[in-house]
Specification:
This protein is α/β, with parallel strands linked by helices and about 500 residues long. It has three domains: about 220 residues, Rossmann fold, CATH 3.40.50; about 90 residues, Rossmann fold; about 180 residues, Biosynthetic Threonine Deaminase, domain 3 (3-Layer(aba) Sandwich), CATH 3.40.1020.10. Helix 12 crosses helix 13. The radius of gyration is 27 Å and the shape is elongated.
């Protein structure tokens, strides 16, 4: 990028037309995150825009600058959702017909957002790049202007107005700014303006590790196209960084970094705890990058800003986010442990773990020798505590496998432990509810003693006041009165499910 080009971008940013539809969003202090990271952390709240994303800035600026003839014909766009909503609201404001190609994976909330502003949403292909190809073909066929989501100087300038606001809102020196990267329009605009007036401020781009188009372009020193990408952070999932955005980023971006799904989910939780706002995965990439960078570089007492770039998340994705957030924060360990198949073995195992909270406990009888237990354990001191737990268990001759970073275990196995157990004679099935507090699970096992063998056990922490446990216990018919007395003395709410058709079909 030449000096002339840079000056031209700065001029475009200074004269960009965005506030007809966009708002100057606040720069909020993230108190909890600041305390935890030992830095002063601010969030630039682009999630508070009317379409819950920064994208309307660039879309409106670009469409405002179209010729009258282009406006009359209407425009075409391609987007995973947020740019689409920006184009739609700009079209509604300027009286321009808008057609937006969106990948089929686009969250429904974003599709409805486009339609609510009068845009014509067309679902096509499985990725942004598929939708992009269709949009280009359609625009050429209909003679309509294509509004690029990132690789356009007017779009870049519109996003760059965020940089103007940042320096007005934070007049003191800023040490590092973290920006989510998909195609690169946001970081190209912000970084151009920030570096022009504050060259000492570091600008760090953050991508999801499954869609590292800009990261790889920096690493290989050329624009590359990825063979495939993951779509967890769908708002920033593109196979190739923009040509213009990469050219600018090479000059004004200091570093690119990658974050995982777990780290992104943990960042969503962090922002919720500070703001009570639920970001979409792409909207939380910058916060995830900030946390990771602070940890890796041991930063303290720095002025840090992360762009909170979007909050268009489907409600049904929240469950997945919540499940992965604890792992991303290193607050949970997933372990596979082999224990003897005999009465009291569960109790002995729980005593080995100590007073730590159990988030999950899965087991199904397999044979008369060994039992495989899949368990989640709460952590307060991250990997250091996890390694200590594993060491303690191995010192007691338990075979332990750490599955905390195993994608199959995290996504599938933890929900699949089970199966038929033909050797589990005289098995009865009970569902229990007990107070969700440390030691409640151990109390249950201690109360039962060594009288009967547990042949099935499933427990998950649901974050509620009561723990829910499903237990299969081998109780000979002659011992049923004694077992019923145990249930009465235990004092936990319980329900027999031995005749439940789901149990009979899949677990009996």
């Amino acid at each position: 990028m030449t000096r002339t080009t840079n000056n031209s971008i700065i001029e475009k940013i200074l004269t960009a037309r965005v506030y007809d539809v966009a708002e100057e969003t606040p720069l909020d202090l993230a108190k909890s995150l600041s305390a935890r990271t030992k830095n002063t952390v601010y969030l630039k709240r682009e999630d508070l825009q009317p379409v819950f994303s920064f994208k309307l800035r660039g879309a409106f600026n670009c469409m405002f600058n179209l010729s009258d003839a282009e406006k009359a014909k209407g425009v075409v766009a391609a987007s995973a959702g947020n740019h689409a909503q920006g184009v739609a609201i700009a079209g509604a404001k300027l009286g321009i017909k808008t057609t937006i190609m969106m990948p089929r994976i686009t969250p429904e909330i974003k599709v409805k957002g486009v339609e609510a502003y009068g845009g014509n949403a067309v679902l096509t292909g499985n990725t942004f790049d598929d939708a992009y190809a269709h949009a280009i073909e359609f625009a050429e066929k209909e003679g309509m202007r294509f509004i690029h989501p990132f690789d356009d100087f007017d779009v870049i300038a519109g996003q760059g107005t965020i940089g103007m606001e940042l320096l007005r809102q934070h007049p003191e020196p800023i040490d590092v700014i973290f920006v989510a990267v998909g195609g690169g329009g946001l970081i190209a605009g912000i970084a151009s303006y920030i570096k022009y007036l504050s060259p000492s401020t570091r600008i760090i781009g953050v991508e999801h590790e499954e869609a590292p188009s800009m990261y790889q372009a920096f690493k290989q020193n050329k624009r590359i196209k990825l063979d495939s990408i993951g779509t967890f952070a769908d708002g920033a999932a593109t196979k190739q960084a923009g040509e213009k955005t990469l050219d600018i980023a090479r000059e004004v971006v200091d570093e690119m970094m990658l974050v995982s799904t777990d780290e992104t989910c943990a960042a969503i939780k962090d922002v919720f705890e500070d703001t009570r706002t639920m970001l979409e995965p792409a909207g939380a990439l910058a916060i995830a990058g900030l946390k990771k960078y602070v940890s890796e570089h041991n930063l303290q007492d720095q002025q840090l800003i992360a762009i909170s770039s979007g909050a268009n998340i489907n409600f049904d994705r929240l469950r997945h986010v919540a499940e992965r957030a604890e792992l991303g924060e290193k607050r949970e360990a997933l372990l596979a442990v082999t224990i003897p198949e005999k009465p009291n073995s569960f109790k002995t195992f729980c005593e080995s773990i100590g007073d730590r909270g159990i988030t999950e406990f899965n087991y199904r009888y397999a044979d008369a020798t060994d039992a495989q237990v899949f368990t989640g354990v709460k952590l307060s001191n991250g990997d250091e505590e996890k390694e200590q737990i594993i060491k303690n268990l191995r010192d007691k001759n338990y075979a332990v496998l750490d599955l905390s970073d195993n994608e199959v275990a995290k996504v599938h196995l933890r929900f699949m432990v089970g199966g038929h157990a033909h050797g589990a004679e005289n098995e009865v099935l009970y569902r229990f509810r007990f107070p969700e507090r440390p030691g409640a699970l151990l109390h249950f096992l201690t109360s039962m003693g060594g009288n009967w063998n547990i042949s099935l056990f499933h427990y998950r922490n649901h974050g509620s006041d009561f723990g829910r446990v499903l237990v299969g216990i081998q109780v000979p018919p002659a011992e049923r009165p004694q077992f019923c007395q145990f249930l009465k003395d235990l004092g936990y709410e319980h329900f027999e499910e031995t005749d439940n058709p789901a149990y009979q079909s899949f677990l009996r």
